[in-house]
């Protein structure tokens, strides 16, 4: 299966992409995670991208298109993928169409997680992420067992620098100005699956499974996604 996970910041794209990746045994390709990896490694690309990310602005299209092109060329993407956080502009969507057409591939579904704005702000401000495995928590809804450490690898959790309230508001504005319209690019009934994302994680996952016609899929061991 080749899936795109869409929705505004805080809609749950990362959480549900990781879970689907485990269920379906296909890699989770998150452009946000790929960028944060480059930032952590201190590469020129990472240093350049960090300035945009810290402001809540988009990283330039040519950087993002190149990054996805390289990632889709990895052999594990042959059996399918979930792309989370791309395309975010019409230019990126056009470039992805071309890339897939060149490979003789197409997108099976675009999952759009719909969540009201106040709820997205609440989710992002309570979010903490494990810098080692990228697992995310919410300090009220889904707190870690041991105060501020990851349940899986005991790494101290971090608040993303772009989850500060002012930057969150800017990210939501950029999303509504530049990305909300990208959904229209795929807007045929059979491809776009709009999911009400305002429910607990299990319920949203069930709704996604139902929309994809894979109800009751078992969770498999995690797939390496990088
Ligand atoms: P969120 O969806 O919550 O904003 P992500 O982790 O997906 O979080 O992205 C974090 C940041 O990375 C974005 O605010 C943006 O700066 C950058 N980014 C990620 N994907 C893209 C993309 N496709 N185009 C431009 N910038 C991107």
Summarize the structure.
The chain is an alpha/beta fold and 226 residues long.
Describe it.
With 226 residues, this protein is of the alpha/beta class. The chain has a domain at 2-117 and 178-212: P-loop containing nucleotide triphosphate hydrolases (Rossmann fold), CATH 3.40.50. The chain has helices spanning 13-24, 31-41, 44-55, 61-72, 90-103, 117-125, 165-179, 182-185, 201-212; strands at residues 2-7, 28-30, 81-84, 109-114, 127-129, 136-138, 192-196. It has a five-stranded parallel sheet. Helix 6 crosses helix 7. The radius of gyration is 17 Å and the shape is globular. The two termini are 18 Å apart.
- Calculate the terminal CA-CA distance, rounded to whole Å: 18 Å
Bound molecules: adenosine-5'-diphosphate
The CATH H-level homologous superfamily of the domain at 2-117 and 178-212 = P-loop containing nucleotide triphosphate hydrolases
Summing up helix and strand content along with how strands pair, one would put the structural category as alpha/beta
- Report the top-level CATH class of the domain at 2-117 and 178-212: Alpha Beta
Q: Which topology of the domain at 2-117 and 178-212 does CATH recognise?
A: Rossmann fold
Question: Largest sheet, order of strands side by side?
Answer: 2-3-1-4-7
Main sheet makeup = 5 strands, parallel
User: Percent helix among the residues?
Assistant: 40-55%
Beta-strand residue fraction: 5-15%
Provide the low-confidence segments as ranges.
221-226
Number of helices: 9
Question: What pattern of helices and strands is seen along the backbone?
Answer: EHEHHHEHEHEEHHEH
Number of strands: 7
Mean pLDDT: 91
Radius of gyration: 17 Å
Coarse shape = globular
Q: Quickly give the CATH architecture of the domain at 2-117 and 178-212.
A: 3-Layer(aba) Sandwich
């Amino acid at each position: 299966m080749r899936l795109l996970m869409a929705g505004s910041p805080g809609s749950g794209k990362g959480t549900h992409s990781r879970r689907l990746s485990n269920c379906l045994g296909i890699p989770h390709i998150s452009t946000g995670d790929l960028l944060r990896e480059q930032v952590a490694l201190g590469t020129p690309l990472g240093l350049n991208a960090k300035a945009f990310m810290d402001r809540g602005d988009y990283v330039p299209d040519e950087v993002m298109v190149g990054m996805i092109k390289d990632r889709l060329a990895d052999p594990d993407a042959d059996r399918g993928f979930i792309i989370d956080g791309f395309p975010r502009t019409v230019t990126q969507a056009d470039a992805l169409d071309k890339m897939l057409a060149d490979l003789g591939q197409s997108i099976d579904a675009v999952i759009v997680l719909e969540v009201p704005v106040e709820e997205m702000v609440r989710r992002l401000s309570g979010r903490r992420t494990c810098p080692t495995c990228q697992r995310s928590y919410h300090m009220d809804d889904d707190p870690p067992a041991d105060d501020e450490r990851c349940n899986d690898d005991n790494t101290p959790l971090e608040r993303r620098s772009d989850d500060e309230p002012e930057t969150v508001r800017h990210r939501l504005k950029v999303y509504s100005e530049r990305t909300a319209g990208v959904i229209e690019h795929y807007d045929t009934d059979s491809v776009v699956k709009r999911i009400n994302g305002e429910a607990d994680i299990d319920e949203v996952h069930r709704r996604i499974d139902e929309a994809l016609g894979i109800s009751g899929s078992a969770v498999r061991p995690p797939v390496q996604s990088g």
